[in-house]
Amino acid sequence: MSVGDRFIGGDATVLVQSMSNKKTKDVEEVLKQTHELKEAGCELVRVAVNTPEAVDALNAIVKGSPLPICADVHFDYKMALAAIKAGVHKVRINPGNIGDKEKVKLVVNAAKDRGIPIRIGVNSGSIEKRLLEKYGHPTYEAAVESALGQARLLEKLEFNDIIISVKFSSALNTIQAYELLSEKCDYPLHLGVTEAGTKFPGTVKSSIAFGSLLSRGIGDTIRVSLTDDPVEEVKVAFEILKGLEIRAHGPILISCPTCGRTEIDLIPLAKKVEQKLSEFKEPLKVAVMGCVVNGPGEAAEADVGITGGKGVGIVFRKGKVVCKVKEEELFTALFAEIDKIIAEKKEGEKK
C-alpha cells in the first residue's frame, strides 16, 4: 500500500517514522521540524490531531511538509474526518474509542474515497475493558485480540488498507505481541516500543525489540519512541537498521572498546570522528581502533580506518596501510582519506 509517495508492506523496504512533538496548531514549527526530520532520513511524520486548532492547521502542514503526514486521532471521529479532508496521507485511530459503528463507517468511507490507509493503533493502555476483564490485565494476547477485532470491523466495511501496531513499554511484551500478530494476519505492521524512555534506555529497549522482530522479517515501519528530540529517534532507528544490515544510511562507525593495550587517547577521538561522520551521507565503514592488535587486522573490512600507539598512528584502507602520521594528525588524515574515497566513487560513477 502507499502512504503519499512511500510504499509499505510486501517487498518494500522498512520505513523510518517519527512524530512531531510540536503543537500541531503551530504550523511553522511543525514544518521546520518535518524538514529537520527529512534531513535526518525520516520518511513518515505523525502529528497529533487533538484540538480544533490542530485540525485547522493540517491543510497548511500537508501542503508544506516534505514528508507524508499521518494524523493521530483519538476519540473524536469528526477530527479524523477533517484530517482526511485536509489531505493527510494516513490516519492512525483506535476504532474502539472513536464511537459506534456508524461513526467508524464514516471515517472508513472517507479514507476509502481518498485512497489512504488507516493504522489501527493499540497500546497497553487502550485495550477494551471486556478484554482486560477476560485476561486480567493488559497482556500481549489482549492487545492482539483487540487489534484483530478492530481490523475485522474495518474488513466488514470492505476496507483492507490497514496497518496495525500493538505497542508496550516492555520490550519483551512488544516482541510477544508482534510475534503473535504476525502469525494471525498479513497486514503491514508498524513496530514501536511505546513510552520507551529517555535516549539511553529507550535505545536499548527499542534495539532489543526491533532486532528480534526485524531479523525474522516482522515489521514494515518503525518508530523509536524517545523522550528526546525526534531527530534522535530517526538516528537511532537507522542505526538499528544498519546494524541488522537491512538498510544502508550514512557511515557505519567501527571502534574498539579500549583496553590496557590502548596507547592513544581513543575515546575522545572516536567521539569526534562520530560527530564529523554525522555530516556524511555516503555508506562507508569507518574504523577507529586503539592498537595494532585491533587495527588493520580486526578492522580489515572497513573502507577506511585509523589506529595508533605511542604518539603515532596509521591510516588504512581495507586493511592496507596508506600512511603513517603523528597521533594529533590522525583525525585530519582520516577525513582526508575519506574525501579521497568519496571523490574516487563519484569519478567511477561518471565512467
Note down, in words, how this protein is organized.
The protein is built from eleven helices and 15 strands. The protein has about 350 residues and is α/β, with parallel strands linked by helices. The longest helix has 21 residues, at about 330-350. The model has no long low-confidence stretch (mean pLDDT about 90). It is elongated and about 75 Å long. It folds into two domains: about 1-245, Alpha-Beta Barrel (TIM Barrel), CATH 3.20.20; about 250-350, Sulfite Reductase Hemoprotein, domain 1 (2-Layer Sandwich), CATH 3.30.413. The strands form three sheets. It has an eight-stranded parallel sheet with strand order 8-7-6-5-4-3-10-9. The two termini are about 35 Å apart. α1 (about 25-40) packs across α2, α3 (about 75-85) packs parallel to α4 and α7 packs parallel to α8.
Compact summary:
The chain has 351 residues and is an alpha/beta fold. The protein has helices at 27-40, 52-64, 77-85, 101-114, 129-135, 140-156, 171-184, 199-214, 230-243, 266-277, 330-350; strands at residues 2-3, 6-7, 15-19, 44-48, 69-72, 90-93, 118-123, 162-167, 190-192, 221-223, 252-255, 285-288, 304-309, 312-317, 320-326.
